[in-house]
Amino acid sequence: MAKGKDVRVRVILECTSCVRNGVNKESPGISRYITQKNRHNTPSRLELRKFCPYCYKHTIHGEIKK
């Protein structure tokens, strides 16, 4: 049987404050998390507050394209 569109999909969350400020001397990288979401319950882009080790604080991490 062929797999159709899965209900649960893997998404990548990226720190919005690191991306907005750009990768500069203060921030050596961009924080990213991998998680899953239910496509039917959450059709819009996912945003969660996660800890960013480069900003040293909890920031909003938004879903990005693969």
From TrEMBL:
GO terms for molecular function: structural constituent of ribosome. The keyword Zinc does not apply. Keywords: Chloroplast, Plastid, Ribonucleoprotein, Ribosomal protein. It is found in: Plastid, Chloroplast. Its main location: plastid. InterPro entries: Ribosomal_bL33 (IPR001705), Ribosomal_bL33_CS (IPR018264), Ribosomal_bL33_sf (IPR038584), Ribosomal_zn-bd (IPR011332). GO terms for cellular component: chloroplast; ribonucleoprotein complex; ribosome. GO terms for biological process: translation. It comes from the Eukaryota. PROSITE patterns: RIBOSOMAL_L33. The keyword Ribonucleoprotein applies. PANTHER family: 50S RIBOSOMAL PROTEIN L33, CHLOROPLASTIC (PTHR43168), LARGE RIBOSOMAL SUBUNIT PROTEIN BL33C (PTHR43168:SF2). Belongs to the bacterial ribosomal protein bL33 family. NCBIfam families: PRK00504.1, PRK00595.1, rpmG_bact. This is Large ribosomal subunit protein bL33c. The gene is rpl33.
